[in-house]
Automatic annotation (TrEMBL):
Annotated spans, Disordered: 1-26
Protein name in the entry: SET domain-containing protein
A family per Pfam: SET
Molecular functions per Gene Ontology: zinc ion binding
Keyword Cytoplasm appears in the UniProt entry: no
Amino acid sequence: LGDEGEKEDENEGDGEEQNEDEEDDFFVPITKAEYDSLIGEVYNLLVKSLLKCRCYRDAYDFCARGIELFHSLKQDDSILQDALGNIKKVYTSRREKLDLSPSEEKKDDNGVDPRLLPAQGVARRVLYPWNDHEPDRKASETLELLNEILKDVAPKCEVKAVALPALHGTAGPHGINGGAKGQEGEVSIQLGLFAKEDIAPNEILLRETSLLTATNRLHDDLCDACNSPLPDLSSPNPPVPCSDCEDTIFCSQECHDQAQEIYHGAICGMEGLASIGRDIPDPKDKADYLYLLLLGRALAMAATQEMHPLDLPEVKYIWGDFCDFDLDPEPEEAGEKDDSATLPFSFHLTILQPIRLLEEMGLDPYATLPTYDTWILNTLYAKFRGTASGRLSTWDGGPELCAVHPLWCLANHSCDPNVRWEWGGEITFRARGVEERAVWRRKGANGQVEERKAEKEGIRMGEEILNHYCDVDLS
Ligand SMILES: [Zn+2]
Ligand SMILES: [Zn+2]
C-alpha cells in the first residue's frame, strides 16, 4: 500500500503498449498530495472490513501501520484507534483462554502479541445480486443440459430436483461444510441423482473425469492434468511432457492435448506459479492451501479458454450454499459471531495469494478486475468448499489432492449410501452389494437387539443415488 504513489510514476514509461490503452480507461495517475489525501480512508476501510471478517491479525497489522501513517501525515486517527480498542478486547479474551506463560507471549508496544490473534476469519457465502453467472439450478433448461452431459458420464442416471429437509447443522447435502439454515419442517429444493433403470451390485454407474484438480505434492509423480500416477518411462505409452515447459508432465497424449486447451495454455512457462500454495508454513493449513490451488487451476482455465471463471462448466452448476445478499448496516461488535458467515476467509488466501497468482500469470490484477474480482474468487471458494472431494497423503496423512467433479457432486449424501466412490484418474460410483449396506440395530421392547439390513441387491429404477459422507474432511 505504501508504495502506491511511487508505483504510478514508475509505470509511466515502460508499460506494455498493448496494455496501456486499456489501462488508461481504468486508471488515472495521481499526485503525491492526492495520494496522501486518499490513503487514510483506504486504511480505515481495510481495517474495518478485516474486522468484520474477523481477520484480527491482519486487521491489527494494518491498524498499527495506519496509525503510524496518520501520525506522520498529522491526520485524525480516531477510527483506527477505535478499531485498535476492539482488537485489544479480542486479544485479551483470547489471551485468557490460551493460558500461556509470560515467556510464551511476546508483546509489542501496544501490548499485543500479533501471533496470538487469529488470521483466519469468515465471510458470508453470498449470491451477489450482480452475479449474473449463477444459473437457476432447478430450471428445466438446466436439468435438460445436465442430463445431456450425464448421458456419457452416467448413462443409467438422471438429475431431478428433490425436496430435502432444511439442515440446521454443519453438513450440507452436497458437501462437508456449510448447510442451509431453516426452521423445523422446512424443505430446501436441491438437485439429486436418480437411477433411470436397475443397476446391478458392483456395477460402475458413473465415470467422470475433471481437470479442475489440485495437488500440493512438491515432487510430482502425478499427471499435471488428471492427477493419476504417471506411467513408467520405459512403458509403451510413456509420460508426455509439455513441449514448451519440460517440468510439466502428463500421463498421456490425451491429457497433454486437453490440458493445453483447457488450462495449460495461459500458464505454460510461468515458472513463478509452481511455488504458490505449496510452501505451507503450518501443516494444519494444508486443506486451505489446496482450495487456493484449486482456485489457481480455475483461474488458469478461465484465462486459457478466455471465459469468465463462473461460467466454466466445471463451476457453473455446482452448489455454493449461498445466502441472500443483505447489506447489513448495523455496526457489529468486535468478536460478535455472525452465524451466516460460514466461508473461511483470510487476507492471505483470499486477497494476497490470488493477486500473486494473477501477477505470476502475467495478468494485471487491477486491469482484470471484471473477471477476477474478490467477489468472484469468494464465489468460487464457496462452491469448492461445498463440493470438492479430497484424498489424503499416504506419506503424512495430510490432505494432498482435491478435485471438483460437477456431476458426481450432484448426488446427495446419506447414512445409508447405496454407492461407493473411488477416485483415481477418474471418479466413479459403484453400486454397493447387500453386504456393503448399512445395518441398523436397535434394542427392542423385550431387550433383544433387532437388526435391519438392506434387502435389495444393487439399485432399482427410480431410486436416488446416495453417496456417503466424505471420508476426507477437507474443511
Ligand atoms: Zn492424465
Ligand atoms: Zn507448458
